[in-house]
Amino acid sequence: MCLPAHTVGMSDPFVVVGGDAAGMSAASKARREAPDREIVVFEKGEWVSYGACGLPYYVKGEIQSLEDLVSVTPEEFREERDIDLRTGHEVVAVDTDERTVTAESESGTVTQSYGDLLLATGSEAVVPPIDGTDREGVYTLGSMSDGKELREYVARARDGEGFQQPDRGPACRYLEDCTGPVGVVGGGYIGIEMAEALAENGFEVNLFQRGDRVLKGFSDETSEYVADHLRDKDVALHLDAEVEELAGGDRVETVVTADDRIPVEMVLLGTGVRPRTDLAEAAGIELGETGAISADAYRETSALDVYAAGDCAEATHVVTGDPTYVPLALTANRHGRAIGQTVTGTPTEGGGVAGTAAVKAFDVEAARTGILDYEAARAAGFDPVSETVTAKSRAGYYPEGGNVRLTLTADRDSGRVLGASLASEYGEGAVHRSHAVVAALSEGATVADLENYDLAYAPPFNTTWDPVLVAAKVLGGQLRD
Amino acid sequence: MCLPAHTVGMSDPFVVVGGDAAGMSAASKARREAPDREIVVFEKGEWVSYGACGLPYYVKGEIQSLEDLVSVTPEEFREERDIDLRTGHEVVAVDTDERTVTAESESGTVTQSYGDLLLATGSEAVVPPIDGTDREGVYTLGSMSDGKELREYVARARDGEGFQQPDRGPACRYLEDCTGPVGVVGGGYIGIEMAEALAENGFEVNLFQRGDRVLKGFSDETSEYVADHLRDKDVALHLDAEVEELAGGDRVETVVTADDRIPVEMVLLGTGVRPRTDLAEAAGIELGETGAISADAYRETSALDVYAAGDCAEATHVVTGDPTYVPLALTANRHGRAIGQTVTGTPTEGGGVAGTAAVKAFDVEAARTGILDYEAARAAGFDPVSETVTAKSRAGYYPEGGNVRLTLTADRDSGRVLGASLASEYGEGAVHRSHAVVAALSEGATVADLENYDLAYAPPFNTTWDPVLVAAKVLGGQLRD
Fold this sequence. Notes:
Chain A is built from twelve helices and 25 strands. With about 475 residues, chain A is α/β, with parallel strands linked by helices.
């Protein structure tokens, strides 16, 4: 055997690169399973284990302190969980032959050997390749410090200390009394959540979307539902509006598209994220076709005892069985936790992903899961067919209630449920109702199976047939014809 | 062949006994599938296709008109759906040899031949065998006319035209200013929904439960959660309080238990329902062990071409595979619809039941599904094990939110999910979250499968691990130990 001796113990540390959801879940789980193992976590920033998903609500002002987003503090990890957490340490190299990582900090460079290594390097906000993204007043929202800067900006602007050029007159186009105006580039989750956060603070918000609809991973019908609501909330929606330049002086002043020049005093880029893979690539670890780190069912990469989890890694789609890149918090937590078990002697699969996502946009909620895109479905060997229904969210006679708009997609031949996209008024249950479809597609269930689920019913919660069942009935009817 | 000729057509009517959910779903579906078939529905009352589940909200005053509970009127069935609906017709006999039913109405007796027959005779409220249930002021809530009477009573009492005996002084024990007091016997759905309806109208409500907890089909923890809330809402909860007599003169005046005599001016009996099977029994059609009409997967009874659906019939439990009696609206609709397809040439199974139920109690919501009772689980060959968790309903830092209390039960050896019981503040999603568990147990999924479902997450809707996943993690941990 040419492999180094590999036994679990003090001389065989579990080393984690990256101290957010995946990394800290793994470290914590490993600590619970192996109280005596040495566990070292390198985090280049100061924050660990924070809920980045909460940042838009912090900027909005609904959450008062950045610390509120932190589920466990560095001190708690160190003192209560006995994890050797080294913040301010950036790992700059991994040597899979020597089984070491090299980290740099203010106090110098350290080399740390590992028995097992987890790469949980996360993702970074994509900055689109256009002129002007380096101007002042252009933000992304990927990190706690981004959130801090944006909140400070919002507070200043609300206090009348914004950056309007006094010589250009009132810049708002459609609000009588506005802060801003501001631009949001990208109509995905972050773009929409930030449009809400800014608009609810009195900003005139221009949302620029390159394609013809927001939330492009959702169904057309959900996109339309959300877009209509954004307009109702006075968000200026610029569809098919590719941003060509963020023009201005030191500060951004204008969003330039092919058709328009929109004055702004701030721009938020919500144009997606990409996996941070430099470290893995440099170490010769394989990336998948998606560009994220490839890993097997146990989340082990092409390098022995090197695992990957969270926003830097691929996962297996439960419907297609293919690797996919869906960087979301639950998967990061779940995969981290599984790795924590695996490296402490209980091999545990990380589980697949269904591409499930949820978003709140002002007074509506939306969710999506599975495969909705017909091209993607066909590429996976399916013959997709869909139905969209609009069904009451509660008994028609019940005093509260609204509608759920639900698109259900299935394979024509097998009837297998492939995906769903749902929207409703906030509180009317589009998101929680999606749970039934996630379960169905995770189990390989057919539309007929779904149609027969004995879902809970009472007038304050749904009609006798829950909207999910209504959609299954209608799609089932089409499949039977 | 000694069977009568049996071809679908004008001479071969589809006859339905009972015009509520099961009956009218079957008739409507059969009409859509077979535009020329003769379809005759006998209904002994005047109302058809009404939402009995909405009656408590009508009594409460949140629904203004009884007609609002009717989803399709008799006229619409007759004129738009071309169904020969005969209200005021009570079927008094079925002859399965002659293939006829005999119905009586004000205008006499008719004999109607059938090609296919559906018995959808429903259920009736159980009146417990105690003295005094025939006194004035004692109500049940099984029918539209019951609802009408109760609403009229509530309106009179609120207007100060109640029935307090002037010589007995203030009858309320704990409310300073109350209407009533009144008694509700039975802590199931109807009892609890009516306790809310009455209390919200200013009545002092005494709820009597024979056993030691309300909602006995739910988990102990859910019962406790709901009971605590009922007490918070000033409902006087009398547990382990078997009612021995409803004493009084012409009108009820006192609820007598072994330990107490509670003055009341009205009593609502919410002590469950039993299937109406007289007609089937007299016709020699088999009943099951539950006492309800037995039927196969296609809902056909022991008599050829005679089907049964709704509250008069058994259904197959998806977890145990055994016949069970769970009289609820969705099953009635679903089975009726399947029969409508079967009798028009597309044999369709009715589907099983999971015993899923939901209830709102003031400001809390609760749901249950599957097998929770350990004796029932053992009788079905399982070795049940449970965990109860209390998990946040939304991200901890999110400004809204509460808790979901969730009991999850599984089979120890196989890990198979057997059932769940959930409670939360109203609006915090106990009911819609139960959908995931219904799907899981319908698919025979294990706790490990459930734990890996990629459920939707965003801070306004849950924590990164939805409460359902938290429960699966905790129970999964116990199963792995």
